[in-house]
Amino acid sequence: MSYLRGKTLSTKPLSTKTSSSSSSSSVPCTLDKEVTLPSDAEDTISSVSWSPTSHHLAAASWDGNVRVYNVSPTGVARGVALLAAGGPILDCDWAKDGSTVAAGGADKTVHLLNMSTNQQATLGNHEAPIRSVRFVDVPECNEPIVATGSWDKTVKYWDLRQQDPLGTITCNERVYSMDSKAHVLVVANAARQVHIFDLKNPGVIYRTIESPLKYQTKVVAAFPDGKGFGIASIEGRCAMNAVEDKDETSINFTFRCHRETEGKVEKVYSVNDMSFHPITHSVFSTGGSDGVFQFWDRVTHTKFRHYQKADEAITATAFNRDGSFLAYAIGYDWSRGCAANTQKTETKLMLHPVDEEDLKKKA
Asked: What is the pLDDT of residues 29-43, one digit of tens each?
């Protein structure tokens, strides 16, 4: 059955609970309402993250900087802060109180930016580049805690007041993506495995599962309630997965996306990012190497909308705190090799005003 047409899937086990979708089988919506933010990043934007307490947006770039913008309700933005690192930055995140931005990347160092003073500091290091950074909610801990996942095959927890990590957990392989909501931390590695951490006991891997997708993981995104997570790969496919065994029947399924059919040829694009809406929890967006972002509902198994192609790949996405904006980055993602990266390739930071049609199923 077609995921695109909104038909429901069967309640069979995960291995047979699969749906297909093609971006070319419906008319894309126009991008005439998009807002372009200041395009001062000098290389591809790897991560975008909104403050949970204000209208500030952080954008991490391969040029070694995190730029922070103050975005008005109408989409007008101005730069207010800058975090500089010693190499490409691969991820960034905000403290729950909006006071601090944390970032990590190729220089293997955890960087911090205090938003009230604009002062920059460092915490500690990994032995290899840091791929993912998240502030996490650890019960009974009154101080902000940062979790970092690295290509050195470890996850580390940090207290902002000290240089040494609170704890180090060894994973089976390099960390490729990581996300945290509620009291759950989800870590995807290079072996197509997903480590699930219960942050009530953060020093122990609660559960490890194998990805239902056959190829390299690009991103994991935790459900806002922490009961499950989405995972996407380079094969133009996504999956929804439950944290607990008992919820698998109602949550788990896979589907195809970010594909085009031209005659007998099907073009398959990487799914570069996935973001869940903070208010309408079942709705999420995906952004791909095809330059398209789409809106889906994981409960009804429906694609609500997809938009016209951008000039380059969608490299990062994030909803703001009330879900009224989707920030997304456009740039080169190296999916076509070095030859296709020319001086004409632009890096852009965009805002999409989210309307009701993005969040509801068509009749």
From this structure: 999 999 999 878 999
Burial of 43 per CB tally in 10 Å (0-12, 13-18, 19+): middle
Domain limits of the chain? 14-358
45-50, strands of its sheet edge to edge: 45-50, 56-61, 65-71, 77-84
Half-sphere exposure of 89 (CA within 13 A, CB side): 31
Is the pTM here over 0.85, yes or no?
yes
Question: Under a CB-based contact definition with an 8 Å cutoff, are residues 314 and 328 in contact?
Answer: yes
| Spatial contact of 291 and 311, defined as CB atoms under 8 Å apart | yes
For 14-358, the fitting CATH number among 3.30.230.10, 3.40.190.10, 3.40.50.2300, 2.130.10.10 is: 2.130.10.10
